[in-house]
Design a protein that fits this description.
85 residues; mainly beta; SH3 type barrels; two-stranded antiparallel ribbon; globular; disordered N terminus
């Protein structure tokens, strides 16, 4: 008897965007690919956002998502930096 998989086949419609929202399990490739869960969505960021200089060469701007990684670390990422798993 074959197992039934209720997960959607994400390769079925490659152009279709999968929504990322609070509670979505994601992978964050910009942080070496760890998995985690989105815990906050700060919404779309305006294009004229202000950045801040952190230390000598680090420039940071606002991010859309807060993600708690499986190792317990909290990271902030933009929409293009997270992929649902």
């Amino acid at each position: 008897m074959a197992e039934q998989n209720d997960e959607p086949d994400r390769d079925e419609n490659p152009g279709e965007s999968i929504a990322v929202e609070v509670g979505t399990r994601v992978v964050v490739p910009s942080h070496a690919g760890p998995h985690g869960v989105v815990v906050d969505d700060f919404g779309e960021q305006p294009s004229n956002v202000t950045t801040a200089r952190l230390g000598d060469d680090t420039i940071a701007g606002p991010k859309r998502f807060a993600v708690v990684l499986d190792d317990g670390n909290l990271v902030f990422a933009d929409g293009e930096d997270v992929r649902p798993v």
